[in-house]
Design goal:
The complex is a heterodimer of chains A (198) and B (489). Chain A is an alpha/beta fold and 198 residues long. Chain A has eight helices and five strands; from the N terminus they run αααβαβαβαβαβα. Chain B is globular. Classes of the chains: A alpha/beta (198), B alpha/beta (489). Chains A and B meet through helix 4 and helix 6 of A and loops of B.
Chain lengths: 198, 489
């Protein structure tokens, strides 16, 4: 495996030029590749930086291939997820890891970044209708922001599942604020997401 | 006897020229790359002092001469006062002090063994335990009072700490300007007024910078306020080698150093001479589990070299130790021992802290006293040895002569007390004696000790009028909805 982060965009362009169906390129090429990366990480054969490199390569190629997919057709995905770190919290790495792991497991991830105001979570959820909304908070002082998102979100759209995480967050706390799932680490988050979005 | 651990041994890991290269490299980063400063007040401060500031990216490039100015203005020796003056921790670059770990959100119930969200009662109990222990010198609210109103959790943490230990209290929850104001007010009340507090600050705030190379708006606005009001600060860099910093430990030290020095610069420009402690807690992100590897050898060495860098700047260091273990016992001991011994051998001034597992998030009462024992053993390791008439004992050796023993000698009787570490939890009895006494593990013995402390240790409470005033401040700070203050970027 070569993790062609720098060159993959050119390869993707070449494949389009050669007449490869972009949907086939995504599903038989990229998705298969990233699945292998995810499995090898799960078995402990490769480490986190390699997983992230794989996801970066996939992102670069998708940027070329997705616009070429004919209108009306969609790549198959395990589910659509809106993700972000809550307001007043700029901790990024944990949220990024979950984001990476979800994409490497076939989810379509819309990442709102850090310090995401409650209103922005709600607006995005309304706009893209995700199957799941995922939030991260790393400080005991910002944790209550998650509850602030969940109640109006659930009032409007009962079907959307909510996944929460971050160092101070616990299973008990997640239940208390009405989240559907919680995970203590990024790999676990994928398992929970798969169970929630089925 | 002085308070703290007197050091007589110091390992050298980095050479003087290594430290100089790291310093110059950091200045290069601050000038060429800059740091992201989210606080408009801090950006203005930097701009007014000649920094190149981009309002759109919020990146400030800091010229070397400003950093050098801050390093001249900084304090070399800082006293973190206790409510009881016998617990005054004098950071004089010759003593090490151990702190409690802080701000977890989970506790394992001492009675039921159930893992649950932490409560104010946990803060009360752990404060009492820290007060009773000999080898822990500075207190942190160890967990959060999650059973209190969300907008006042950290105020209850501080309140429970002030009331249940006479040792200095360092918190890490002053992350917005309004938090800073309330926490400062509470500190002043406990000290008996601003003048008394400024003379003997019985609380301080540890502030984390955000790796790589970022300063949160709320944290920095709060810090400017704290410095102005005489509250000592720690700036604590936390790049994770291999994730939010380079995988090389020295590379991550450069990233953390740029964060700490830029924070120091902002504070010294705003309040020259403010008490700032140099903090760093670089533990790698475990590349297999994505968990922060607290208590790893890399964490220990990162803390040790950060201490060497702090001392290169003539600043007291504050470095971290933690554990990824899920329960007290073998793994927790291995991680805490590794994490403490490295930095303490390198001369760490403040070592934070004992008693939390799952990377500083879960409180086990038993672990607090086990860690106290670990620190006791390490204190003996770093005391140092020297040869003089008394320690050489030539007269005594001559007197006893060949073939006899040294047991019934006055020299032996007096020196045993100062020379030997007397363990509390390590069991050195024979197998028979140990099994007859119930074959207790170190965890069982720790449990007995915790029971004893909670049943018998008395901490003089704050005066009733002081308590009443603190309650009033907390009540006033309660907000009906969460998030009274949002940060401006």
């Amino acid at each position: 495996m070569n993790y062609e982060m720098e060159t993959i965009a050119d390869l993707a362009k070449q494949s389009l030029k050669d007449g490869v169906d972009p949907l086939v390129a995504i599903e038989k090429g990229l998705a298969e590749g990233i699945k292998t990366v995810g499995e090898r990480f799960g078995r402990g054969e490769i480490f986190l930086p390699e997983l992230v490199m794989g996801a970066e390569a996939m992102k670069a190629a998708l940027a070329v291939l997705e616009p070429a997919v004919p209108k009306g057709k969609h790549r198959s995905s395990a589910g659509k997820v809106v993700i972000g770190t809550v307001q007043d919290d700029i901790h990024e790495i944990g949220k990024n890891l979950v984001s990476t792991m979800l994409s490497s497991n076939g989810f379509e991830v819309i990442d709102l970044g850090v310090n995401v105001p409650t209103a922005d979570f709600l607006k995005k959820a309304d706009e893209v209708k995700p199957q799941m909304l995922a939030m991260s908070a790393l400080m005991t002082t910002t944790m209550p922001r998650m509850a602030e998102v969940i109640s109006p979100l659930k009032k409007k759209n009962k079907a959307v599942k909510v996944l929460v995480g971050g160092a101070p967050v616990t299973d008990t706390y997640a239940k208390e604020i009405g989240a559907d799932g919680y995970s203590g680490d990024a790999s676990g988050a994928v398992d929970v997401a798969k169970k929630l979005v089925r | 006897m002085s308070f703290g651990i007197k050091r007589g041994v110091r390992f050298n890991i980095l050479s003087e020229s290594d430290l100089e290269r790291i310093h110059w490299g950091t200045l290069h980063i601050l000038e060429k790359v800059g740091v992201q400063v989210d606080s408009p007040a801090c950006r203005k401060l930097l701009k007014d002092n000649g920094c190149e500031v981009d309002e759109k990216t919020r990146i400030a490039k800091i010229p070397s001469h400003l950093v050098e100015y801050a390093l001249q203005k900084k304090k070399t020796s800082i006293t973190l006062a206790g409510r009881n003056p016998k617990y005054d921790a004098k950071l004089d670059l010759n003593h090490s002090f151990m702190t409690a770990n802080g701000n977890g959100a989970v506790a394992v119930d001492f009675e039921t063994g159930k893992r649950r969200p932490s409560t104010k009662k946990d803060v009360v109990n752990s404060s009492k335990i820290i007060d009773a222990l000999q080898n822990v010198h500075i207190h942190w609210p160890m967990v959060s009072s999650t059973d209190q109103h969300p907008s006042t959790v950290h105020l209850h943490d501080f309140d429970a700490s002030l009331n249940n230990t006479e040792k200095h209290v360092m918190y890490e929850t002053g992350v917005t300007l309004s938090d800073a104001k309330t926490l400062t007010e509470m500190g002043y009340i406990a000290a008996g007024g601003e003048k008394e507090y400024r003379r003997r600050p019985l609380s301080s705030c540890l502030q984390c910078t955000y790796a790589p190379l970022q300063h949160d708006a709320g944290v920095m606005d709060a810090s400017l306020y704290f410095a102005d009001k005489g509250v000592p600060l720690v700036f604590f860099g936390m790049p994770q080698p291999g994730a939010t910093g380079p995988a090389t430990l020295v590379g991550s030290l450069v990233v953390g150093n740029a964060e700490v020095l830029s924070a120091l610069t902002m504070i010294q420009l705003s309040t020259p001479g403010a008490a700032i402690i140099y903090g760093m807690g670089n533990a790698p992100l475990d590349p297999r589990t994505t968990i922060r590897a607290g208590g790893s050898p890399e964490h220990a060495i990162s803390s040790a070299i950060a201490t060497e860098l702090a001392h290169f700047y003539d600043m007291p260091s504050c470095v971290g130790v933690s554990a990824t273990a899920k329960e007290p016992g073998d793994q927790a001991v291995l991680e805490y021992y590794t994490g403490c011994v490295g930095p303490l051998l390198a001369g760490a001034d403040l070592m934070c802290g004992v008693g939390l597992l799952e990377d500083s998030s879960c409180l086990f009462y038993e672990q607090i006293v086990i860690d106290d024992e670990i620190v006791g053993a390490i204190a003996r390791l770093i005391r140092g040895e020297w040869a003089d008439d008394d320690t050489m004992a030539l007269d005594l050796i001559e007197k006893v002569g060949p073939g006899k023993d040294f047991l019934a000698q006055r020299h032996t009787v007096t020196h045993i007390r100062s020379e030997f570490f007397m363990p509390n939890l390590v069991d050195r009895r024979s197998f028979d004696a140990w099994s007859q006494a119930g074959s207790k593990s170190i965890r069982d013995r720790a449990r007995d000790k915790v029971k004893d402390i909670l049943a018998h240790h008395q901490v003089p409470p704050l005066a009733p009028d002081v308590q009443k005033k603190l309650d009033g401040v907390i009540e006033k700070a309660k907000k009906s909805t969460w998030g009274g203050e949002s940060k401006v970027y």
